Amino acid sequence: MNRAAAAVALATCILLGCWSLAHHLAAQHKLLVDTPVYERYGDAVVQGKVPYRDFRPEYPPLSLPTFILPSLVAGRHHKADYTRWFDREMAVCAILVLLGVALITTRPTALGLVAVAPVLLGPVVLTRFDYWPTALAVLALAAFLRNRLTAAAILLGAAISAKLWPAAIGPVLFLHLWRTRGARVAAAFAGGVVAVTAAFFLPFAIIAPEGVRYSLHRQFGRPIQIESLGGVILIWIHRFFHTTINVKSSFGSQNIDGFGYHAMTIATTVLMVAALLLVWWKSRNVVVGSAAAVAAFLAFGKVFSPQFMVWLVAFVPLVPGAALAILLVAGLLLTQAWFPRHYWDLTNSLALRESAEVLLRDLIVVALLVLLTLRARRPDPAPLPASAGAAAVEPRPEPERPAA
User: Fold this and answer.
1) Which among 260, 29, 239 has a CA at the least distance from the CA of 124?
2) Distances (CA, A) of 193 to 154, 171, 273, 402
3) 140, 152 in Cβ contact below 8 A?
């Protein structure tokens, strides 16, 4: 076993150990889980119902396999079994994220951050499916860096079809190909991503257009969530200036309404679009640009649920730098500080400590965006050879030439 394989094996063992420790954290307080919703979707398909036609899932089509497989294994009327199998399924997806990162870099810091992320972020990782689209997205980037453009297009299209956010990294890859290999190659890659995405969406759009429209509305039509940067800024404006705001439950989350809501919606949307356009256009480094695009999508999005930090776990460690690693760890720990233990303190009473922790977490993601955007303007290193293994990812110093 070479050094790179040994490092990946060790990191996998650490990841599984941290996954187990996350269960011990879960036992300390009452969890807020999404698995009952997933179980309802999975059981419906097992019973022969057609998604989007006979029932309306709020997530894209390729999220459904992660809901269906535990239902198939656990059987009906076995809620505990479903939760257990879903947990194991997400552990496998977390390992896939680690392998995707290892295909890009075997730096110990990168592998270590991915491995310990479950215990840093806490038990939310056990009951959300975000490791699945994240695994597909980072594997797509790994394939792209090895010039496996067909595989990269398939994986990226699949990632978008599992949860829409990986579309944020697509323009980074497209523009890199445009600059380095020409418009034809870039267009072929983009066409492949669109074709794969359409292959998952179109059958359901044909047989159940209203169901697919409902799903997309649930993703794009959401109000400002209390944990988003816009939401927590409105909380602090309310705290200082005694404005009138309300917390309303809709779209499966707790959202901010009242003074400044519409202005904040416009402002954060404009900032997100501007940040993404800047990252896409200025990026000269595919890896850093991809991480920056994910950070931009999170920093100014209307929704920032705690499990969304998983997205950063796959991409930020790819970029060397102590400041980036420290900020990521701080963001993960701050998220666990209020979720799930003090979540209702935040939503019911807009508690001072919890709202401060949310604001600081969101500002940390903004800081990550700034640092990554500045780094993304540096040129790409040489692409990885298609046949290279993980050990070839790290650059090796060239042997010194004898003096003339």
Assistant:
1) 29
2) 6, 11, 21, 49
3) yes
Q: 């969890």: which residue's tokens?
A: 31
- With contact defined as beta carbons under 8 Å apart, do 347 and 247 qualify? yes
Phi, psi (rounded to 5 degrees) for 150: -65, -50
With 0-12 CB in 10 A as exposed, 13-18 as middle and 19+ as buried, what is 27? exposed
pTM value > 0.85: yes
Which of 58-67, 72-81, 282-291, 376-385 is predicted with the least confidence, judged by mean pLDDT? 376-385
Helix (H), strand (E) at residue 20: helix 3-26
Question: Long-range contact list for 340-346, CB < 8 A, 24+ apart?
Answer: 340/29, 340/30, 340/31, 340/32, 340/122, 340/123, 340/124, 341/28, 341/29, 343/32, 346/226, 346/227
pLDDT digits (tens, 9 = 90+) for 110-148: 999 999 999 999 999 999 999 999 999 999 999 999 999
CA distances to 42, 88, 135, 310 from 91, rounded to whole Å, are 19, 5, 11, 13
Single out the residue of 354, 228, 395 nearest to residue 298, CA to CA: 228
What is the rounded end-to-end Cα distance, in angstroms, of the chain?
A: 39
Before 123, cis peptide (omega within 30)? no
Amino acid, single-letter form, for residue 25:
L
d(CA 57, CA 70): 16
The amino acid at 313 = V
**Tokens 């419906």 identify what position?**
44
CA distance 94 to 164: 19
